[in-house]
Amino acid sequence: MPLLFAPHTLSRWLVFMATALLLAACQREPQHPAYRYDDRDLWKALPTLQVNAGNEVLNVRTTTQAPAQGKHAFVFLGEPSAPNNGDALVMQHLATAHPDSAVWYIDTPDDLFLERDRIAMRNHHGSFVPPLLRELDQRFASYTLLTLDVTAVPLLRGLRQWQTQASDAERARLAHVVLLYPSLYINTPVAGQPRELFPIARHTALPITVMQPELGAQAATIDDTLTALREGGSLVRLERVAATTDGLYKYQNIGAMAAQTAQLLADADKKMREARQTSGFRLAALPPYDTSTEPASTLTSGLVPVSGVSLQDIRLTDIGGQAVDLKRDYAGKALLVTFWATWCPHCVEEIPSMNRALAQLDKDRFAMVSVSYKDTDAIMNAFRKKVPMDFPVLMDRDGQVSKAWKVYAFPSSFLIDRTGRVRYSINTGAVWDAPDVMEKLREISQ
Predict the structure, then answer these.
(1) How many CB atoms lie within 10 A of CB 349?
(2) Which of 146, 171, 277, 434 has the smallest number of CB atoms closer than 10 Å to its CB?
(3) What is the CATH number of the domain that holds 351?
């Protein structure tokens, strides 16, 4: 059964539908409780222990099977979205498969008194990491650190601080760092614009496995991150996970997915140990690196003006199989072109407002076109039965059109005037029939 990943960020964890792929997979596998994303009863029932990390006291969730001390520990550092039953199930599966290991989960934003916000997490200095690792040194012979999305940024910063001061024996205890679909970019890139990695990506020398979902937003560009990590001296393995999207066990039946995720993580840990043995990789002492000099992440919101960019070719087939040439077929019309995916709740949230906005505009002068990122026909047909869409859906089955348009987050949209000039872009969801947005839609339609 393929492991399914869902979107990253708090509101994008909301699940609007089970995909056809998931339904087919569940028919082949033993049934598990169909926990919803916001179910947290298993999570709340996990035992809690307190761990000192410098000035912070971390409330660590652990498992009933896992000892407080042992040979090895798997330590999850949570992302901005709140943990749920899926996290608890992954922990329990890992603990069952490794009864002599501890499995910990730290709800990072909660324990650090951060907003559950991607910007706040990107800008954290990671100072809690060195004292946490010293605590792990006292309890375990070795440990694996696991995190995902933007929490990779403070983790790598903290590990660099630790690596400059740790002894040889302490460095030897860090077995592995797992980064699930890491986002090491300074900002969520504005649609159509270049993006830039945090410098810490190139100042890291660690044993790292990057797990990249095959259908995730960075699937076509993850090599940029791998190259940067290797430039710093890291031993980097890439695991491309088939038939998956960004996120972790967040769809309807998270029971089955949690088991698959735990197995994936356990296999990656084994492969890294083998890679380290084969290559002779050892963590080295590193000179100091001032992470406080790194640029700050900022929030870019709303429609961003764009100048000097013209409509690129988009030649795709729609969901009905008809070939569409955007420049030819929509010549003389203003356009809202939206790049999206069915697994992206922000994308789904904005569809009703798109329908309402379209109904208010002159269809001889304005049109909406959506470009579906790597969705299959089966998934799209099932989706459209549940969510009405009053505009065409073009199928970007291999993601190459999205890549050419420099789309790195979903939804991303472009407003194009009747002469073919790109006037605005936005890389978040929008309420398209809000008065200020309608003003922009009418502006480009003149």
Answers:
(1) 17
(2) 277
(3) 3.40.30.10
Domain with residue 166: its CATH number is 3.40.50.1820
Q: Is 329 exposed, middle or buried (0-12, 13-18, 19+ CB in 10 A)?
A: middle
Distance CA 103, CA 289 (A): 30
Q: Are residues 257 and 329 in the same domain?
A: no
Burial profile 131-151: b = 16 or more Cβ within 10 angstroms, e = fewer: bbbbbbbeebebbbbbbbbbb
Pairing of strands 70-77, 101-106: parallel
Tens digit of each residue's pLDDT (9 = 90 or more) over 235-265: 999 998 877 776 644 444 677 778 888 888 9
CB 153 within 8 A of CB 198: yes
104-150, pLDDT tens digit by residue?
999 999 999 998 888 899 999 999 999 999 999 999 999 999 998 99
Q: CA 442 to CA 355: how far, in whole Å? A: 15
Q: β-pairing, 70-77 with 140-148?
A: parallel
Whole-angstrom distance, CA of residue 77 vs CA of residue 44: 17
pLDDT at 167: 96
SS3 label, residue 137: helix
Question: In terms of residue numbers, what domain contains 431?
Answer: 304-444
Using DSSP's 3-state secondary structure scheme, residue 117 falls into coil
Instruction: Please give the C-alpha separations between residue 61 and each of 5, 47, 49, 102, 144, in angstroms, as whole numbers.
Output: 23, 6, 7, 11, 16
Residues 53 and 139 in one domain: yes
What's the pLDDT tens digit per position in 39-73? 888 899 999 999 888 788 899 999 876 666 679 99
Instruction: Report how far residue 4's alpha carbon sits from residue 6's, in angstroms, rounded to the nearest whole number.
Output: 7
* Burial 221-248, CB ≥16 within 10 A → b, else e: ebeebbebbbebbbbbbebebebbbbbb
Provide the phi-psi class of 271: left if phi over 0, else alpha when psi is between -120 and 50, else beta: alpha
Please give the Cα distance from 122 to 103 (Å, whole number): 25
